[in-house]
Amino acid sequence: DPNMKGGQTSEGVLANFFNSLLTKKAGSP
Amino acid sequence: STVLEKSQEFFQICDTEGKGFITRRDMQRLLGELPLSAEDLENVFDTLDADGNGYLTVEEFSSGFSEFMFGTSASAA
Fold it and tell me: Which among B9, B41, B67 has the least Cβ separation from residue A25?
């Protein structure tokens, strides 16, 4: 897949960060 | 809840001392709480710190969050 790049873009890492926060909130009542 | 409310909630997770801004040090406290490496957290900080002054305000934080939500840099405020 030509769209797959090694290493994370800053956009990707930001998405990862916010997704983790969303998951964290969901996981802790 | 709205993007602004969510981003304020997340801001408070990072700003544990309630200073009203987030520093690199605050960001590194999330190491172990979030599945991100120290380098990832540095990267997130640099991306969100639009003016590069070393402090993340709730405005910078929420604009980063709305960018993530909507794929634009429109401010959530």
Answer: B9
First to last CA, chain B: 14
Concatenating the DSSP letter of every residue in B1-59 gives --HHHHHHHHHHHH-TT--SSB-HHHHHTTBTTBS--HHHHHHHHHHH-TT-SS-B-HH
Closest CA in chain B for residue A23: B34
Partner-chain contact A8 B9, CB within 8 Å: no
Q: Which chain B residues are Cβ-neighbours of A8 within 8 angstroms?
A: 40, 43
Tens-place pLDDT, residues B16-63: 999 999 999 999 999 999 999 999 999 999 999 989 999 999 999 999
